[in-house]
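Look over this one:
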Amino acid sequence: MLFVIVLIVLLALCFDFTNGFHDTANAIATSVSTRALSPRAAVLIAGAMNLIGALTFTGVAKTIGGKIADPLKIQHGTLVVLAALVAAIFWNLFTWYFGIPSSSSHALIGGLSGAVVGAAGFGAINYGGFRSIIEALITSPIFAFILGYIIMWILRLVFGGMSPHRVNRGFRFLQCFSAAAQAFMHGTNDSQKTMGVITFALIAGGYQHTMNIPFWVKILCAVAMGVGTATGGWRIIKTVGSKIIKIEPINGFASDLTSSAIIFGFTLLKLPVSSTHVISSAIMGSGAAKRPKGVHWGMAGRIVVAWLITIPITGFLAALLTRLFLI
């Protein structure tokens, strides 16, 4: 059992590392694309603010670890977590290779749900908690698009008559702060998901009896995500920062402000969101407010398709792996 727990922790850190490819990279994509921050400075800021954010809240971790299923009622719970992590890591690497900003959150939630079903059947899923998680994942990008549109519309109304050079210079400066805020908000939500899965495994293995997140789990997960961002996030930064719309500093600030507000709002509700889809939707909303034809809706469509298929694919793969582990 101790060997399996150690393996789960290592795989969880690998997942957070690959999560850095996807989700933390999104937090700094706009500021890098508009040259408000150099890539090196953006990575350092994202890593530091993610770490602080990850240590600040634990509500989302408790939701992931306790609302999908009760770890005390799942036989072979550690193998369930093992299968979920393998499925989620595979999907993260697959979509990273093709530069698709799919959701690590969806991958992990789909993997954990599928693994629970593979081990104990559909009756083991806590449908009330699972439904609240799915509702948050669905509504948060919609809210981000609407709020991004509204904020950009207001900014255009206020600054539309000013010199474009002066506007760009001012908002490029403001992006230094908005990128830091977005990275912090990202840490308050995304970093907690793997913490919740590790805690689920600790409870299932008999090493812990409550959903209180150990401090060492918080530190390891936050550090792993920051290292992942620094190592391989540039593919996703390129997609989010240039292939959805041509981002200007005012767009970047509007989308940063929008996604920060949406992510933090759901964190206060203790609900997980996909930062990938929140940030991408905020960018689309701000772009549509300025020039709808400037939004690359084909790339937006690819993101939506990835959103739709991630949970079913990772769920099926995790269920299959769980059955193989139990043979």
Notes: The mean pLDDT is 84. Residues 29 and 241 are 5 Å apart (CA to CA). The first helix runs from residue 2 to 33. The two ends are 17 Å apart (CA to CA).
